[in-house]
Amino acid sequence: MESVANPIAERISSISVSSTMKVSADAEKLRSEGVDVVDFGAGEPDFPTPDNIKQAAIRALEQNFTKYTAAGGTPELRKAVCERHARDFGTSYQPSECIVTVGGKHVIFNLTQAAINPGDEVVIPVPYWVTYKDVVNYAGGRCVFVETGEAGGFHLTAAMVEPRLTARTKMVIVNSPSNPTGAVIDRGEFEKIFQLTSKRGIYLMTDECYGKFLYDSEPFSIASLPGAKETVLVAGSLSKTYAMTGWRIGFGLVPAALVGAMTKLQSHSTSNPTSISQKAAVEALRGPQDSVGAMLAEYRRRRDFVLGRLRAIPGVTCAEPRGAFYVYPNVGVALGRNGIANTLQFAEKLLTEAHVAVVPGEAFGTARQVRISYTSPLGELERGLDRLHQFVVRHS
Ligand SMILES: Cc1ncc(COP(=O)(O)O)c(C=O)c1O
């Protein structure tokens, strides 16, 4: 029998396996062998989905809301997304400018595939969330990276972005608060970045996945600025805000023409997001919002604890996260000796020797940091940080 020539399509080689998922898989494997692993790798809330949301899903099942819906989401949910965004941020989107997707990743994938032509440049701040780079590459675009730097707390400024804009720039991607650093773009800088992109007719994609988890500033959407709707692309997700990672509901608030293009793509791939999840999402957006504040308060407690413990490790430095639920400490002190050449090897050794899972900074485009998610209870954080402390001291 002949084997298939070129068995894997070339475009698949432009993307790599999501390294955050790889860490979780490695940690899971060790755990299944009976090892007591502390997992700081997973980027998902440890809280259960709030009960009112679960009840809405149960009602949807009981009422047999179990059939196909419109590919881009039910009119009811699209309206609920627009209303929530208007209430929270003062925007004025219509359901025709809203698409519901199978999670936040899906909206970012469909947006980049619908907007980027081969050769288009896309400006991406470093450290970046892994997926941006891969989906831009998959669309045939060219990533243009902007270093933010630990010294400045990884804060993105307009002055960093401006020199990267060329006649070929199609899009700038921003993520505030940031995964992996927790950095928040200062409002004034955000507005300046918007001025830069809008006057050149460049899309500004704002990933608002962690937009409600801010420690010392008010939630803000750049889409609320006058004239923003023409070029600003909002990528949203219910996954973290409402502890709904498994339900897979994300959304885009974008010009109607892009909604059309993305719906076309979606209609040939996933079709609609799960009908039951859509009903649950309506409740999440329209129902009581107090669970969000309660989660934020707990994340703040953990942030303060983790930051204190990391800064107490000799040689480790750490910028203060202003949002999301990640810290991005610099572990350079333990690199370059004992067979630990880079953060990938640091993470591997930390997992096998000390049984703590973190994500290496290489995944986010930097060489000396690792990402820690503080999505575990304080006791678990303490256990993991004790191990990390000893590990770094041993290897410095
Ligand atoms: C920055 C960022 N954007 C978007 C997402 C997408 O989340 P989901 O696809 O689970 O909605 C994530 C998930 O980790 C993220 O960290």
Describe the overall structure.
- By secondary structure, the chain is an alpha/beta fold.
- Helix content is about 40%, strand content about 15%.
- It contains 12 helices and 12 strands.
- The chain has helices at about 20-30, 50-60, 75-90, 105-115, 130-140, 160, 185-200, 255-265, 275-285, 290-310, 345-355, 380-395; strands at about 40, 100, 120-125, 140-145, 170-175, 205, 230-235, 250-255, 325, 355, 360, 370-375.
- The strands form 3 sheets. The protein has a 7-stranded mixed β-sheet, sandwiched between helices. A 3-stranded antiparallel β-sheet has the order 9-12-11.
- Strand 5 (about 170-175), helix 7 (about 185-200) and strand 6 form a beta-alpha-beta unit.
- Helix 3 runs parallel beside helix 9, helix 4 runs parallel beside helix 5 and helix 4 (about 105-115) packs across helix 8.
- The model has no long low-confidence stretch (mean pLDDT about 95).
- Pyridoxal-5'-phosphate binds near residues 104 and 250.
